[in-house]
Amino acid sequence: MKLLVLFLAILLAIEEPVVSVECWMDGHCRLLCRDNEDSIIRCRNRKRCCVPSRYLTIEPVTIHGLLDWTTPQISTTVPQTKINKNRG
């Protein structure tokens, strides 16, 4: 019996612990992401897959340049107020 316990202790000591789980774009599975990371999906162990923000902020580019609909548009027109003609 002592030999069996000794064998199990040695077997567990030799076994390498699973440190990382597969994550998207070489991210890390964490409970909370760091300030410079964003959570995209969940890992198999139900933790967040934290990916550095620099990988997520790439501007979409086509052969002809930037797409107009992907860049934010700021309206330069002043909103018109309607005049009520029925009031004196």
TrEMBL record:
GO CC list: extracellular region
Places the protein is found: Secreted
Keyword Zinc-finger carried by entry: no
Keywords in alphabetical order: Antibiotic, Antimicrobial, Defensin, Disulfide bond, Secreted, Signal
Coiled-coil region: none
GO term, biological process aspect, one: defense response to bacterium
Pfam families the UniProt entry points to: Defensin_beta_2
Principal subcellular localisation of the protein: secreted
Domain Beta-defensin: 22-50
Region forming the signal peptide: 1-20
Family: Belongs to the beta-defensin family.
Function: Has antibacterial activity.
Name this protein carries in UniProt: Beta-defensin
Organism: Saimiri boliviensis boliviensis
